[in-house]
Structure formats: structure tokens, C-alpha cells
């Protein structure tokens, strides 16, 4: 009983409001489910009364014991990283407008050509090209927070030991259900070599070499599959100086961060 006119203070989980009418809870304190569930129920009740739309709970791997009780209170998985899982509960009566988890993975394919019209190519030790004899461009995945240009430079260095300078994006391809259920964006990047002595990555690369660009394009695999042959044609055309790709220019976002705008410098020289 609460004596007199005193108002009972209800303890809530610590959360911060986001920009979209939601609450974000970053759980750090060790807690068992017996203590967690009453706090969560009280918090949800309060936030519903206040008209909040969604509640996010970030649970570090040390608090994995709280996943099941949270799910029983209406939370669903949204995404996970190596050290945490993010759960979300749409508590508003309005239509659920929560953004889905990331839909695409971003990758690069690196077109590196020397002044002898030879391109840098590799054969992989694993994956779908293992044992096929196909020579392909170095490829890889862009890391979180990494620029496309820097990812291309990094992957070439890791796989072949070649130092490069980013020039431009020549083309990009979108495909679906490429990585589990996720779609894929692959950017074909042109880089200028700054070194030429190949030191291949032994763990992932079976072989690496400089190959005449025409020989690369004439491989049976490249000619058989139009997605690869189209890229080869773009690179051949670029090698003859008749194709303009997209070059990066730094720009500042509304939040003050630096981002890169890619554009055709040949046909659009004034920005």
C-alpha cells in the first residue's frame, strides 16, 4: 500500500529516445530473468502510455539469458553481431514501419592494369572458382565503415601484395539471394598499380599473375557467362581510353560527416 497521497515510483529499464519515437535500451548490467521481466513489463506499460512506437533492446552476449524472456514479452530478432543481438518490439497500435535488417552485402572486384596492358588476376583456393582454372580479378567484401575505394585497395594488397591507387568505379552489379537471403552489390573498381612484384596470400589464393587483358577476356568461362563477359568488355574498352567510370569526390553530409559522391568526371566536370 502507498500511504497518504504519495505516488509510487515505478522503476524502469534505462533507455534513450531515438529520432523516430522509439526507445533504445543498451543492456550492460548483469541481470537474471526474475529481475528483468518485471522491469521490462513495467517499462513497456509506461512507454505505451507515453505513445512510444518501438522498443529496441541490445543484449551483449553475456546477457544471452535474457533473450528468451524478452521474446516471451513480444520482442523479435532484428539483427546480430559477434558480440550482441538486437531485439525489437513494435508497441504502437499504428502500422509497423520498422526498418528491416540490412538487405545487401557490398563487395568489390578490382581491375588493375599495368602499362604493358596486363591485368592482375588470381585463382582462388576456395569458393565456387576453386579448381576451375579460371583467372579472375581480386574480389572481397567491404567492411563496416569502410569506403569502397579503400576496400578495393585493401583487398588487392591482401590477396596479391600489390600496392595500388584507386581510380574509379567502372560498373556495378546487383544480385539477389547471394549471401544466404541477402542481396549483393558488387562494384567493379579500377586501380592503378604502384608496385608490381606479386606476393600472393597463401591462405586464400592458389595463384596470381599479370595476364594480357585480351587473354583474360578470352577465357572460355568469361565468354560463356554474360555477366562476366560484360565486365570484361567494359575493362577492355577502358584500357583503350574510351570509357568513363565514376570517380569519388568527398562531400559533407547534413550531420557533418564526410561521404563520397561518385560521378562521371568526363561528362560532368563542374560540381
UniProtKB/TrEMBL annotation:
The Nudix hydrolase domain, residue ranges: 103-233
The keyword Metal-binding is annotated on this UniProt entry: yes
Alphabetized UniProt keyword annotations: Hydrolase, Metal-binding
Entry-linked PROSITE patterns: NUDIX, NUDIX_BOX
Pfam families registered for this protein in UniProt: NUDIX (PF00293), Nudix_hydro (PF18290)
Recorded GO MF terms: ADP-ribose diphosphatase activity; metal ion binding; NAD binding; NADH pyrophosphatase activity
Transmembrane annotation, as ranges: none
Membership in a protein family: Belongs to the Nudix hydrolase family.
Name of the protein: Nudix hydrolase domain-containing protein
Organism: Gossypium stocksii
Amino acid at each position: 500500500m502507498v500511504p497518504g497521497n504519495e505516488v509510487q515510483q515505478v522503476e524502469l529499464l534505462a533507455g534513450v529516445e531515438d529520432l523516430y519515437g522509439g526507445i533504445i535500451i543498451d543492456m550492460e548490467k548483469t541481470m537474471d530473468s526474475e529481475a528483468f521481466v518485471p522491469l521490462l513489463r513495467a517499462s513497456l506499460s509506461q512507454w505505451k502510455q507515453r505513445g512510444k512506437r518501438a522498443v529496441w533492446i541490445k543484449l551483449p552476449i553475456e546477457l544471452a539469458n535474457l533473450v528468451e524472456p524478452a521474446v516471451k514479452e513480444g520482442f523479435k530478432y532484428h539483427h546480430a553481431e559477434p558480440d550482441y543481438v538486437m531485439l525489437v518490439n513494435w508497441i504502437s497500435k499504428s502500422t509497423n514501419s520498422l526498418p528491416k535488417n540490412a538487405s545487401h552485402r557490398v563487395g568489390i572486384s578490382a581491375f588493375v592494369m599495368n602499362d604493358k596492358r596486363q591485368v592482375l588476376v588470381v585463382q582462388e583456393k576456395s569458393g565456387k572458382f576453386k579448381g576451375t582454372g579460371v583467372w579472375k580479378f581480386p574480389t572481397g567484401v567491404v567492411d563496416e565503415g569502410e569506403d569502397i575505394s579503400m576496400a578495393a585497395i585493401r583487398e588487392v594488397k591482401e590477396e596479391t601484395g600489390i600496392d595500388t591507387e584507386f581510380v574509379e568505379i567502372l560498373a556495378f552489379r546487383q544480385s539477389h539471394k547471394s549471401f544466404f537471403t541477402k542481396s549483393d552489390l558488387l562494384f567493379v573498381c579500377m586501380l592503378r598499380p604502384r608496385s608490381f612484384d606479386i606476393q600472393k596470400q597463401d591462405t586464400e589464393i592458389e595463384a596470381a599473375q599479370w595476364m594480357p587483358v585480351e587473354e583474360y577476356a578470352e577465357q572460355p568461362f568469361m565468354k560463356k557467362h554474360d555477366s562476366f563477359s560484360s565486365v570484361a568488355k567494359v575493362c577492355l574498352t577502358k584500357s583503350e581510353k574510351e570509357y568513363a567510370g565514376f570517380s569519388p569526390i568527398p562531400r559533407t553530409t547534413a550531420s557533418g560527416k564526410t561521404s563520397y559522391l561518385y560521378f562521371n568526371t568526363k561528362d560532368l566536370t563542374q560540381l
